[in-house]
Amino acid sequence: MSELVSTANAVWQGGLADGSGTVSLASGAAGPLPVSWASRTEAANGQTSPEELIGAAHASCYSMALSHEIASAGGTPKELDVTAKVTFAGGITGIALSVSGSVDGLDADGFAKAAQSAKENCPVSRALAVPITLTVN
């Protein structure tokens, strides 16, 4: 596999509490997205936060890793629904992954094993140095 570099850009204006900014993805898939300190610590109010963006990255990476694990175990994923809740309390203190899915060829135990393996092997999971919990529904 060849190397691919993904790029995002943030522009910030003002101080931490009263400033605001935008984040854009070089791919053009989203953005510019407004971001502020208040969106991290109070309420989103139509703005995003670094934690929400990490959650989006983690949920999408995990769903891909789980699809691979299911196929490796002999199953066929029909649909996977993944939520990543990133907790911020002066810093990122943890991520709670929750997954449900419709899968052919695996029973509930097989799905749970694939889900756990995906959590351990997802590149975003491996890149993050915070506790990650997993709930399989």
How would you portray this structure in words?
This protein has 137 residues and is α+β, with helices and mostly antiparallel strands. The chain has 4 helices and 6 strands. It has helices spanning 37-41, 50-72, 108-121, 123-127; strands at 8-13, 20-25, 33-35, 76-88, 92-104, 132-136. Strands 1-2-3 form a 3-stranded antiparallel sheet. A 3-stranded mixed sheet has the order 4-5-6, with helices on one face. A hairpin with a 3-residue loop joins strand 4 and strand 5 (92-104). Helix 2 (50-72) crosses helix 3 (108-121). The radius of gyration is 17 Å and the shape is elongated.
Features:
137 residues, alpha+beta, three-stranded mixed beta sheet, 4 helices, 34% strand
Q: In which range does the helix fraction lie?
A: 25-40%
Describe the main β-sheet briefly.
3 strands, antiparallel
Strand content: 25-35%
H/E element order: EEEHHEEHHE
**Cα radius of gyration in angstroms:** 17 Å
Helix and strand topology:
Elements: E1 8-13, E2 20-25, E3 33-35, H1 37-41, H2 50-72, E4 76-88, E5 92-104, H3 108-121, H4 123-127, E6 132-136
Parallel strand pairs: 5-6
Antiparallel strand pairs: 1-2, 2-3, 4-5
Helix pairs in contact: 2-3
In short:
It is built from four helices and six strands, in the order E-E-E-H-H-E-E-H-H-E. It is of the alpha+beta class. The two termini are 33 Å apart.
